[in-house]
Amino acid sequence: MVLDLVGLGSAIIDFAPGSRGPLSSVRSFTPYAGGAVANVVVAASRLGLKTGLIGCVGDDEFGYFIVRDLQGEGVDTSRVRMVKGRRTGIAFYSIDEEGERHYLFYRFPGYSDPESSLEIGDLDEAYIRDSRMLHFSESMLRLDGTRMAVFKALRAAREGGVQVSYDPNVRENLWPSMDEFREVQGKALALTDIFLSTLREASLIAGCPGDPGEALDRILALGPSTIVLRGRNDYRVVTRGGSLKVPIFKVKAADTSGAGDAFDAGFLAGLLRGLPLEKAVILGGAVAALKVMSVGTRSGLPGIGEAIEFIRGRTGLEL
To answer: How many domains are contained in the chain?
Structure first.
């Protein structure tokens, strides 16, 4: 089976709050299947792409919850392993008055971190080489064992002519040192074609906070041919041939959880559909805007028809 997009990363359970305010004031939560890369492949599947996930979940009810949810979204789970003796990671988040979310993660080493069990043997290189694009995040790069598996996957993609997309979704406090963090990031970016991030994360990786231009130059020099930075007011696109900015769609945000993942999925779907770079960014922006208007990690993620109609109504543009 040839897939459009294969994700390599973690899948967890997100507990969305039943009301706004700090976690200490929330009295009810609703569980949703989450995880940055898992969110991307689900959103891409809703947009009509054939998708799959490579990763690990716990051998528990939450692990089954995640697998059933992915399958219900049309995501291929044949390379998702349930790890015996491990529990699935969970996260609770709160939503402030601006719709911004604040996370509290529960991942305990050796107990509720099944993603740390990803092994080189979990990777089917033919599965990757037969896809059109591989997308991954920083979470699998933090440990030596899973790091080796990620680099095997990236090399398989490169050898097979498969595009590689990387959204780090950085958690710098989980790294032993910033020197190790930047060294590993450099190696990953050398095998990356598309870098999707924020200015803060790009500056952190490049080691030059406060100098956006220098950060972008350094990231480009490391390997990616396309960079898209998500900002508060626009998306900044940088390639070796130039740059452009695309305004963000202004909507009333109910819950911004998963917004970056939604953008990634829309943008990558646009590229895989053969859209020009600017239109792919606009599609990504529309998917993110529609997502944040609903509460829940994946609530509000649109189908391709809904996204196109949203763009038409807001801009008059035809994709």
So the answer is: 1
Distance (Å, whole) CA 139 – CA 187: 15
Read off the CATH number of the domain in which 286 is found.
3.40.1190.20
Whether the Cβ atoms of residue 277 and residue 194 lie closer than 8 Å to each other: no
Strand ranges of the sheet holding 101-106, from the earlier edge strand across to the other edge = 29-34, 12-17, 90-95, 101-106
Whether the Cβ atoms of residue 52 and residue 23 lie closer than 8 Å to each other: no
Angle 102-104-105 (CA atoms, 0-180°, nearest 5)?
Answer: 135
CA distance 63 to 86: 10
Structural domain harbouring 237: 5-315
This prediction's pTM: 0.95
Q: What is the per-residue pLDDT across 86-145, written as a single tens digit (0 to 9) for each? A: 999 999 999 888 778 888 999 888 889 999 999 888 899 999 999 999 999 998 898 888
Residue that has been written with the tokens 């979204």 in this structure? 73
